[in-house]
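Fold this complex.
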Amino acid sequence: MSHIHVAVENLSFSYEKNEPILQNVSFFAGENDAIGIVGHNGVGKSTLLKLLVGLDLRFEGSIRVEEIPLEQNTLNKIREKIGYVFQDSDSQLFMTTVEEDVAFAPRNYGLPEAEVQRRVTAALEKVHIEHLRHKAIYKLSGGEKKLASIATILSMTPDVILMDEPSVALDPKNRRNLIHILNEFDHLKIIASHDLDFILDTCNRVILMNQGKIIADGDAKEILTNEKLLNENGLELPLSLYKSDN
Amino acid sequence: MSKINRAIYELQSIDATAKQNRWMNQIHPLVKLILTIYYIVLTVSFHKYDVEGLLGMCIYPMVVFIIGDLKWKDALYRLRIVLPLVCIVGIFNPFFDHRVVATFGSVQVWGGVCSMITLMLKGILTVFASYILIATTSIEGICYAFRLLHVPKIMVTQFLLIYRYITLLLTETKRITQAYALRAPGQKGIHYKVWGSLVGQLLLRSMDRADDVYESMCLRGFNGEFPFGKPKKSAGGDVAYFIFWVIVLFVIRTYPVFRLVGGLFV
Ligand SMILES: Nc1ncnc2c1ncn2[C@@H]1O[C@H](COP(=O)(O)OP(=O)(O)OP(=O)(O)O)[C@@H](O)[C@H]1O
Ligand SMILES: [Mg+2]
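Structure:
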């Protein structure tokens, strides 16, 4: 694994004409950053993450991963380094059993079967779902699917992790465990979430978005404790901060 | 269980059977694929009046069902739609072919009857041979074997993705009909007025889902070649199994074994 940074410059994007979703978004994500992307529903968080892994290349502006511009012919090279967890686990999982899904990426990268098995075991152990190894995907619960999705990217041993609403559907224990996993991962990670407490626990930097633009970009604590700023952009203080106030 | 649920369940349970850790399932997929093709070719090649010879071919499914620990009940249930169809094929032969090919005492057997029976048998045996392959080999295994036989990768991947798409389509159908039923209590089926929009939704959603899945595959390094987890190296047992059946089936095909064996006792 190596350390990688991502540079986004003047990124604009729209799904349909005259309906801009992202407008002139620019930021630099350093190799050890842990960035939380926050904003109300439909603000374009998922869209931004999707663009970063090249799921849509119709954007304007530039995205560079380790100085390599994101384009059609650099896609494979860049994707090898990035692990992406979909907002909707059903989109992420497609094989019949958990084991096969988690093994998909390492097998694709041509690793020997013994190494594949080792990685699968390690990934499943990390998210505490070894017992689901041979279970059919369609029989998993919502939270189990989420954990399995996370395992599928852990087995890739990515250099960058992008997660879209990773804490949704997780019970408190698994949520805590995920925080632990993310904090252990000392490379670049970008997490989009409404769970501001989760962001507070895992990120040192926050990017606040509204109407397709970056409103604030800075220290996580500073932004997430700024009640006025949050309220103006359709968000509320993290729960943990409420409690300590009252 | 609703029909859709049952369809999903059946698909998954065949998958599950194929992935069990049994002796037959461990045999290299290539061995099973080639044997199946070989068996089908031999079976189909019997003469249309050769009922006796064809009966000999029943040995293969019978033995494999036993050693493979497959259940006849499951097989018949899963094949309940296909089997009657293959049986219908020759049903009119007795009306066309009145040539007498054998007589038992005073009973004359028409060629049409014989050819009807052989056609049915051929159909049934072929279906069972395919079933044996599917029930003991995962779809990935079969695809992997196809690749070893140099079937173009685009075709194999296509095949696999279609297979996946069926599950996806069924799951999506289930979701939509459930969501509908919950908001239309007491209504049986789906009102014809919303058929149009439901089917449209279904198409859009399953295409969307298929897109997502494809993206998810690409994000994890998919580049057109499916990474079929390589099965273990074919062991001596596999080769022995292969050679055994090649010889046995060939003998049954070439010699009227039953008549010879019967002759020993007469
Ligand atoms: N495939 C699509 N086609 C057209 N418009 C889309 C598509 N996907 C998303 N949008 C629109 O783009 C906007 C941003 O969507 P996005 O999914 O990025 O929001 P988000 O910030 O992730 O929201 P949430 O917090 O609800 O997940 C939304 O207004 C949505 O309606
Ligand atoms: Mg989103």
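The two ends of chain A are 44 Å apart (CA to CA).
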